[in-house]
Structures are given as structure tokens and as C-alpha cells.
């Protein structure tokens, strides 16, 4: 059974140790990061640690177990048990990530190939109809479109080969240090290197400078080989147990000091005093003059939840251009018409977008603190849509999905809300835009995005959105029997959504609901009264001798179309009528 979205994003958990009454204490995972002074031990052990991790990863791919690696590596590399345990755990985490990444890549290729062949099939059908009636308009740019169709088919065939190779591959592939730097050795001068030795130094540096130690709350210092101690004021120290093979150079231990202040200091002190495990990671940051940092992961007391649905709910709607927020009272109505807030989707570099997103999340959580109410957001999985971006027509929607704004926004929102005791509710986004436009956009003077956010908030409060009586009375004759399942809640709204899209009713027109309803009724009546006319036979009038002018030769184009159509038919998934 797959995990829920909230369980994947949350930092909440329960302690392993049970209380006297048999319950477990809820806790919140936090991170504390600080800069530490340079010491040669960090450099030597960081490079060697990463080399051993790469060896452990190879052993895992050959079928060795994590426990076996932990036992054999102590003697093989002359290191302590705790370091071997951390290396085995680190390598197993990388192995699991690579396994999941390959599965996701295969899924992405499947989605891309499926959407691609569907697009090719529909394009062939459209071009076949145009070729049957070769008018000047139909044949304009026909040859260019035919070449584009052939290029897309070739690309899909290459993707199919890549997917089959991935499914057959037994080994997981990863390039420690980065493929870009690895390929730079073949073009040294173009990448600013005068010799291979110079490149080799950067390569070794890139692949090292990082080590990791698992925390343990049952030992002094809350870690077996990287013990954390409080000194005074804002000063803490970390005492590393030197691996056996390095003790001739550095002794048994190496102690370094670092500074932590503010709330992070209080969190770290609580973890040390409460016997919480403190996992330590030391790493070098190249973009900060190769300075070394220490990152501590531990647990603190969970923040009590202060939000309650009795105080209402804040609804959030994520769009291609904006993030819209609105507060809904317990009775299901907005507090006032001007209560809706709209934030533009951040733009700029990755760092700028992340900083702006955090600011937006802070504003939303601050509003929830004021009302002491939970926050409701859409429960959407965009992985499949991202894989099909190439075959979509909306550039704005593609840009929104490919920017990973949604995933980062929800992650930041969950983490920030948990720190302030605000509950996050993920609700289905089923037709929220259509329901909001029909029921609330005109009534409260909201835009389409804010009205959709209102529907999400009401859904979190437990309200169900039934079709207005005026729309039911007017359009009841055009609903199908299956549209009335579940009292018309699902099928009826789905039919209205299809009609609005079919008759090209734009969102600004939804402020005039009576006009839109009358237009829908007239359009549906006209459509039902249409007579079926015989299709016009291909060919021109008597004056043209049955020929039509065009830029491409219909006979040659038909042959090429049939060739591409044959490729689609051979896939077995999509068949287009000639």
C-alpha cells in the first residue's frame, strides 16, 4: 500500500522507547547546521569514507547483505564497527534510491511513449482527413508537418529501446563526482585544464569530502563515533573516534568546536539531555571556499496542534501563474469578500524561487496562526503529467509542472506548519475550478482561482457541493442516467465541465451565470436537433476536373502517411482508421 502524501512530507514520528503506559512519545525531526574549523582528519577520512561507500555499493549490487558488509568491512578496511555500520547504512540508502530512480525512469518512459503514440495516432488521423480533401488551406505546410511526424516517431522508437535496455539491465549506474566533470577529461583545454593530473585532482576532490555517522541515544554524546557535547554559552564540541588505520597520524580522537545559537541551541540541548540520537554528517562546501560544515539531525518534542476545524479553514489553490489563498468560516462562507489573497508564482534562479516560496509559506502559516485553523491544499500527483509535457499544448502549464514549484511548496508548507502546530489537510481537487466558478465566483466577486480555493476549504470542512437548483431544472433533460450516480455530485459536475469546455465558455463570462446558462441550453438544444448530412466525396468541382491545388503531392504524402501509420499499428496499442 502506497504512502499518503502527508506521510511522505511530514517530519513527525514516534519515539522507539515506550512510556510506562505503553504509548510512544510524538517527536519532530529537526536539523542543525554549523561551520567547523578545518582539520586534516576531515579531509583524509572524508575521502576514504566515500571510497569505502562506493565499494559497499558495488557489494550490494553483487547480492551482499547490509549486515555482511558491516561485518566484513571492519577487518577489510581496519575501521571500527560504528563506522562500518554507518557506511553500510549510507550505501544501502544510495542503493535504494538508485533502485527507485530506475523504476521512476521506466515509468516516465512508459508515460512519455504512451502519450507520444496517442499524439501520433491523432495527428495521422487528422492529416489523413486533410489529405482526403486537399484544399489550399489543408495542404499548407503539409510537408513540414509530415517531416515533424516522422521525427516524433523516430524519437519514440529510441525511447522504446531505452526503456527495454533499462528493464533488462541488472546493474544500477551512478557517476560519483558528476558526469559533466567525468567527461571533462576528454576535452581538457575546453574545460580549463592544462593536464590530466590537474583534472584528476578536481575529480578526487569532488568524489570525497563527506562522511556520516548514525546517532545513538543510549551512549554518551548521543553518537558512537561522533559524540556531541555542550561546552558553554553557544559553544558545542564534536569528538570523532579516529578509525584504527588513521590513529598513528591523529591519535584516538579528534575534537572540534562549533557554535549554535538561538532556537537551534535550545533544540540541541533538549536532544542531548533527553537522550535523543544525534546523527552527524560532515561535508565540505566548494562554493564557500571549501569550508567544512557539520549537520546534526535529531528529534525534539512535537509541537501541540493549535488548529481546529471549528475555527474554519484556509483553502489554497495552486495555478500556473498564482497561489491563491482564502479563509473560510465554519459555516462555509468567506469572512469577507476581500479576504482572498493571491501570490504570484516565484520566478528567477532556483535559490530565488525557493526563498520567495518560503516567504509565501510563512505568510500563509501566519494567517492560520491568527485564525487557529488548519490549512487545506490539493492532493495532486504531477509525476505522470510531467512525463507527458512534450505532448501538451499549454506552455504555461508545462512551465509550472517542470519548475517543481508544487512539490517544493507543499514540502515547505508541511514543515513550517508542523513547527507552529498547524494541521495540513490534503483534499481531492476534483473539478474545484468549475464548481467554484458556477457557485461562488459571481456570488462573492472572486476570481476563478480564489473560488477554487474556497471549494477546497469547504471540502476540508466537510461540505458537499451540489449542483444549483436553477442549473438542474434547466439542464436536467441533457444529463445521462449515469450522471446521477451519487446524487449527481460527481457525474453531473463532470457533464457541466465538459459542456463549458465544448462550447468554449471562458472564465470571465461566468460572472454572468444567467447568460451562460441560457447559452448552454440553446447550444445543447441546437446540437440535439442537428441533422446528419452525407459526407462530401473527395474531389473538386467539374471545372477543376476533380483536382484540388496544394503544395504537396497527395499520392506521395499518402504513401508517407501510410508508412507512419503502419509504425503506430505495429505497436499494438493504437490503431488509426485509414
Distance between the termini: 44 Å
Question: Strand tally, please?
Answer: 13
Number of helices: 19
Rg over alpha carbons: 31 Å
Average pLDDT figure? 85
Uncertain stretches of 5 or more adjacent residues: 543-552, 573-578
Strand order of the largest sheet: 1-2-8-7-3
- Overall structural class, as computed from helix and strand content, comes to alpha+beta
The description of the largest β-sheet is:
5 strands, antiparallel
Task: Describe the fold and architecture.
By secondary structure, this protein is of the alpha+beta class. It has 19 helices and 13 strands. It has a 5-stranded antiparallel β-sheet. The protein has a 5-stranded mixed β-sheet with strand order 11-10-9-12-13. Strands 4-5-6 form a 3-stranded antiparallel β-sheet, with no helix packed on it.
Describe the secondary structure blueprint for this structure.
Elements: H1 5-9, E1 12-18, E2 24-36, H2 40-61, H3 66-77, H4 81-132, H5 142-168, H6 179-183, H7 196-206, E3 210-213, E4 226-232, E5 235-241, H8 247-250, E6 253-259, H9 262-274, E7 279-285, E8 291-301, E9 313-318, E10 322-328, E11 341-344, H10 350-371, E12 375-378, H11 383-387, H12 395-402, H13 405-419, E13 424-427, H14 432-444, H15 448-461, H16 469-475, H17 491-502, H18 513-529, H19 554-570
Parallel strand pairs: 9-12, 12-13
Antiparallel strand pairs: 1-2, 2-8, 3-7, 4-5, 5-6, 7-8, 9-10, 10-11
Task: Provide key terms for this protein.
five-stranded antiparallel sheet; five-stranded mixed sheet; about 15% strand; alpha+beta
Amino acid at each position: 500500500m502506497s504512502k499518503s502524501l502527508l506521510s511522505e512530507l511530514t517530519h513527525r514520528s514516534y519515539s522507539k522507547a515506550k512510556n510506562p503506559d505503553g504509548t510512544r512519545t510524538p517527536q519532530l525531526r529537526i536539523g542543525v547546521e554549523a561551520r567547523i574549523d578545518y582539520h586534516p582528519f576531515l579531509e583524509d577520512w572524508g575521502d576514504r569514507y566515500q571510497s569505502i561507500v562506493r565499494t559497499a555499493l558495488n557489494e550490494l549490487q553483487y547480492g551482499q547483505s547490509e549486515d555482511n558488509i558491516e561485518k566484513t568491512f571492519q577487518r577489510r578496511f581496519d575501521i571500527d564497527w560504528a563506522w562500518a555500520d554507518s557506511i553500510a547504512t549510507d550505501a544501502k540508502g544510495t542503493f535504494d534510491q538508485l533502485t527507485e530512480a530506475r523504476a521512476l525512469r521506466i515509468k516516465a518512459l512508459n508515460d512519455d511513449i504512451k502519450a507520444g503514440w496517442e499524439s501520433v495516432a491523432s495527428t495521422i488521423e487528422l492529416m489523413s482527413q486533410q489529405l482526403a480533401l486537399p484544399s489550399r488551406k489543408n495542404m499548407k505546410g503539409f510537408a513540414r508537418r509530415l517531416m515533424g511526424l516522422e521525427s516524433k516517431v523516430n524519437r519514440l522508437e529510441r525511447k522504446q529501446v531505452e526503456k527495454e535496455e533499462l528493464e533488462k539491465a541488472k546493474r544500477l549506474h551512478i557517476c560519483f563526482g558528476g558526469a559533466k566533470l567525468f567527461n571533462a577529461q576528454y576535452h581538457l583545454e575546453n574545460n580549463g585544464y592544462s593536464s590530466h593530473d590537474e583534472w584528476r585532482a578536481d575529480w578526487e576532490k569532488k568524489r570525497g569530502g563527506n562522511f556520516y555517522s548514525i546517532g545513538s541515544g543510549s551512549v554518551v554524546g548521543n553518537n558512537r563515533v561522533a559524540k556531541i557535547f555542550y561546552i558553554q554559552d553557544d559553544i558545542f564540541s564534536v569528538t570523532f573516534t579516529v578509525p584504527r588505520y588513521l590513529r598513528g597520524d591523529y591519535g584516538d580522537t579528534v575534537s572540534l568546536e562549533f557554535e549554535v545559537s538561538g532556537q537551534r541551541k535550545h533544540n540541541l540541548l533538549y536532544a542531548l539531555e533527553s537522550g535523543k540520537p544525534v546523527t552527524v554528517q560532515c561535508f565540505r562546501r566548494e562554493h564557500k571556499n571549501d569550508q567544512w560544515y557539520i549537520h546534526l539531525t535529531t528529534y525534539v518534542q512535537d509541537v501541540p496542534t493549535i488548529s481546529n476545524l471549528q475555527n474554519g479553514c484556509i483553502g489554497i489553490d495552486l495555478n500556473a501563474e498564482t497561489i491563491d489563498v482564502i479563509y473560510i468560516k465554519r459555516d462555509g462562507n468567506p469572512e469577507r469578500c476581500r479576504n482572498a489573497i493571491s501570490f504570484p508564482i516565484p520566478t528567477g534562479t532556483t535559490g530565488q524561487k525557493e526563498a520567495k516560496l518560503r516567504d509565501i509559506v510563512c505568510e500563509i502559516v501566519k494567517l492560520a496562526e491568527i485564525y487557529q485553523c488548519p490549512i487545506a491544499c490539493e492532493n495532486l500527483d504531477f509525476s505522470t503529467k510531467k512525463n507527458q509535457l512534450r505532448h501538451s499544448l499549454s506552455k504555461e502549464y508545462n512551465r509550472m509542472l517542470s519548475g517543481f514549484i508544487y512539490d517544493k511548496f507543499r514540502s515547505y508548507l508541511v514543515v513550517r506548519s508542523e513547527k507552529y502546530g498547524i494541521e495540513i489537510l490534503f483534499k481531492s481537487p476534483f473539478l474545484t475550478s468549475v464548481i467554484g466558478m458556477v457557485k461562488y465566483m459571481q456570488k462573492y466577486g472572486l476570481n476563478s482561482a480564489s473560488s477554487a480555493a474556497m471549494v477546497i476549504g469547504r471540502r476540508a470542512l466537510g461540505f458537499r457541493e451540489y449542483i444549483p437548483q436553477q442549473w438542474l431544472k434547466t439542464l436536467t433533460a441533457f444529463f445521462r442516467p449515469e450522471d446521477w450516480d451519487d446524487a449527481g455530485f460527481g457525474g453531473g459536475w463532470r457533464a457541466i465541465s465538459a459542456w463549458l469546455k465544448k462550447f468554449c465558455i471562458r472564465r470571465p463570462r461566468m460572472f454572468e451565470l444567467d447568460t451562460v446558462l441560457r447559452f448552454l441550453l440553446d447550444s445543447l438544444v441546437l446540437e440535439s436537433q442537428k441533422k446528419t448530412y452525407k459526407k462530401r466525396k473527395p474531389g473538386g468541382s467539374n471545372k477543376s476536373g476533380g483536382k484540388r491545388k496544394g503544395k504537396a503531392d497527395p499520392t506521395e504524402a499518402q504513401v508517407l502517411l501510410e508508412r507512419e501509420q503502419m509504425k503506430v499499428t505495429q505497436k499494438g496499442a493504437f490503431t488509426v482508421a485509414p
